[in-house]
Amino acid sequence: LPTILQRTDQVKDQYDYVIVGGGTAGLTVADRLTESGKYSVLVIEYGVFQNGSAVTTVGLGFLGITDPALSFNFSSAPQTSLGGRSFPVLVGKMLGGSSGHNGMQVHRGQKEDYDRWSSYFGSNSCGWGWDDILPYFKKAWHFHPPNKDLATQNGIKYDAKYWGTSSNIHASWPTFTWSFLKTEMAAFGDIPGVQYPPDSGAGQPGAFWYPTSADPGPVLRSFSRPGHWDGISDARPNYHTITGQQVLKVLFDKQNRATGVSYLPVGSTNLSAALSVKAKKEVIMAAGTIHTPQILQASGVGPKKLLKDAKIDVVVDLPGVGANFQDHVYQIGATFNLNNFPPVPEPNDLFNNATFMALAQAEFDANRTGPLTIASGNCGAFLPFPLISPSSFSTIASRYESQPAGAYLPPNTDPLVVAGYAAQKKALASTLRSKSSAVYNFFLRGSRNESAIVYLHPLSRGTVQIAPSDPYFTQPTVDWRALTNPADADVLVEFTRFTRRYWALPALQKYQPVEAAPGANVTDPKDIVAWLRGNMNPSVYHPIGTAAMMPRDLGGVVGQDLLVYGTKGLSVVDASVFPDLPGAYTQQTVYAVAEKAADLIKGRQ
Ligand SMILES: Cc1cc2nc3c(=O)[nH]c(=O)nc-3n(C[C@H](O)[C@H](O)[C@H](O)COP(=O)(O)OP(=O)(O)OC[C@H]3O[C@@H](n4cnc5c(N)ncnc54)[C@H](O)[C@@H]3O)c2cc1C
C-alpha cells in the first residue's frame, strides 16, 4: 500500500485505533502506537501532505501562517471587550498540523504549571506533575547543544540533563544571533529578582535562551510529520494514513462505547454519503483545541443545551466540551523604538535591506548558516508577577481571588464549569503571587523596534461551539472573550508599567528608547486599558483547554487517563486537554503530553 491511502476504498473496515487529526499530537501518538507492530492504526487528516518551502523553511519562522492551503483561517466571534473586533483563527491544516507552520520557538512551562494541573485532582492526582512529565519532555525532544562560540559570546546557558536525544523531533540552535539581544538579556539582570536559569527546560522562570524546532542537519523545520511519520508509515504495514478527509463525528454503541468515526472527503457536504471506519480499541481525538470540541459536540458529547439547539442526540451531557477556552494574548502595548540603535544588523534588515538579505540568503545557500537559521526567536524573559509589580501583585491577586467564580464567565455557564473555574481561580491566584511561575513574557527580537510581550496566564475564559444550524461544515464559533475578566486588565496595566521600567534602565538609555505605543503620556490605568481594548490581540496561536483534563465535577472532559467521561474507548490527546496554560508557548508541552498519552493508551491493554 502507498504511504498515504489514495482512495477511501483502501481504508480497512476496522483498525485497533483510529486517530482523528494527523497533527502535532496525532502523529506522535500514531508513531508510538504502531512501533511494536502489534496494533493497527488509521490516521484521518483533514489537510494534505505539504512540503513546500513555506512549511520547511526555518528562516523568519512561520511563512505559511495565513496560507489557506496550510491553515484553517477563519474569523472569530466579535470580541465584545476588544471593541467588537474579530480576529483570524489560525491553526495548522496539513499532515503535521500546527507544528508545520508554528513559530518554532521551543520552551516548556515552569515546574509549578504542571504541579498545578495535577493539583486539580487533589488527593487522587497521579501522573501529571512536573516530576511525572519531565521524562516525557526528554522522550519527546532531541536536544542539540548550541555552537560553543555562539553560546560563549551570548551567554547562552543550557544543561542537557533536562533533555533527551532519542526523539526525531529536534531542538537546535541558529548559528547566528542578533547582537543587540545580548544587551537586552543583560539588562534584565539589573532588575531585582530576575534569574538566569540553568536551562530553558529547567522549569524555572527568568531570562533565558531556548532552541528552535529545526533539524540541524539540513536546517529544516522539525515537526511531527518528518519526525513521526515520514518513512515510518511507509515501513509499517499496520499504519495507514488518509488525508483530505474531514471526520464528522464519533460513532457510539448503546453503551456509549466509541465504535468508530464517520468522515467525508473535504469539500463534500453530502452527509448521506458519509463513510465510516471502526475502532476496535479506541478512537483517539487529536484534531486540536478548535476542532476536537467541534467533533465531540457534533457527536453528542457536550453541553446538553447546545446539542439540543443543534438537534443532536445527547450521548453524554458534558458541559466542559468547548468551555474553558484559553490562549496567550499579545500586542499588549509598551512598544519601544530605539532611536540610537547601535550599528549592528537587526531583524528588520532582512526585510528592509536588500543587500543584507541577499548576503544572508547566499550564506544560507552555501553553508546553511547565518541569519536565516533564526526562526522567530530564541530568547526572552519569563517573569513572575511579584517581580513585575512588587507593590500591587498581592492586592491584584487577592482582588481576583475574591471574585465570585461565575461573575465573568459566559452567561448561563454550567455550574460544573463554574466549579472548575473556582478551582483554577484559587490556583491561579497562587500563580500570581508566586516567584516560581512566569506570568509576563517579553519575547526579545534584538531589534530597533521591540513590542512582543505575551501574557502567559490570562484569567478570562472563552468558548468554542458548533454552529447549531450547521455543526459539521460551518467552522465552530470561536470566542476568546479576551479581557472580559477585569483582573486581566489589572495585570496588563502592570505589564505596561514594568516594560517602561525595563526600558528606563540606565544600561539602556544610550540607545534612546522612545515609547511608540500606547505612548508615554498614557499613564492612567483607564487609558491604558482603553488602548488595550482597541489594540490587543486575543491569540498568539496557543489555544488550549476545550476538552480539559479536570475532574468531571469540575467541568472536566477527560480524566488523568485522557479518556472522555461517560464514554468508553474514546480519548483526547491534543492541546485541548491542557486544563490551563503553561507559562510557555505550547508545542513542547503538546509533544510531551502526546508521548505520555501513547504510554497511557498502550498501558490499557
Ligand atoms: C501560527 C502558529 C504559531 C505558533 N508558534 C508556536 C511557537 O513558536 N512555539 C510553540 O511552542 N508553539 C507555537 N504554536 C502552538 C503549537 O504549534 C500548537 O500548540 C500545537 O502544534 C498544537 O498541536 P495539536 O496536536 O493540539 O493540534 P494540531 O497540530 O493543530 O493538529 C490538529 C490536526 O487536526 C486536523 N483536523 C482538524 N479538524 C479535523 C477533522 N474534522 N478531521 C480530520 N482532521 C482534522 C488539523 O488539520 C490538524 O492537522 C503556534 C501555533 C500556530 C498555529
From TrEMBL:
* GO MF annotation list: flavin adenine dinucleotide binding; oxidoreductase activity, acting on CH-OH group of donors
User: In this protein, which residues make up the domain named Glucose-methanol-choline oxidoreductase N-terminal?
Assistant: 288-302
Q: Mind telling me which InterPro entries this protein's record contains?
A: FAD/NAD-bd_sf (IPR036188), GMC_OxRdtase (IPR012132), GMC_OxRdtase_N (IPR000172), GMC_OxRtase_C (IPR007867)
User: Which Pfam families does its entry note?
Assistant: GMC_oxred_C (PF05199), GMC_oxred_N (PF00732)
Which keywords appear in this protein's UniProt record, sorted alphabetically? FAD, Flavoprotein, Signal
> Per the entry, which co-factors are needed?
FAD
> So where does FAD get bound?
V247
One example of a Gene Ontology biological process annotation: secondary metabolite biosynthetic process
Top-rank taxon of the source lineage equals Eukaryota
Q: Which PANTHER family match?
A: DEHYDROGENASE XPTC-RELATED, GLUCOSE-METHANOL-CHOLINE GMC OXIDOREDUCTASE
Q: Give the similarity note.
A: Belongs to the GMC oxidoreductase family.
Protein's UniProt name: GMC oxidoreductase-like protein
Organism in which the protein naturally occurs: Echria macrotheca
Please spell out the taxonomic lineage of the organism that makes this protein. Eukaryota, Fungi, Dikarya, Ascomycota, Pezizomycotina
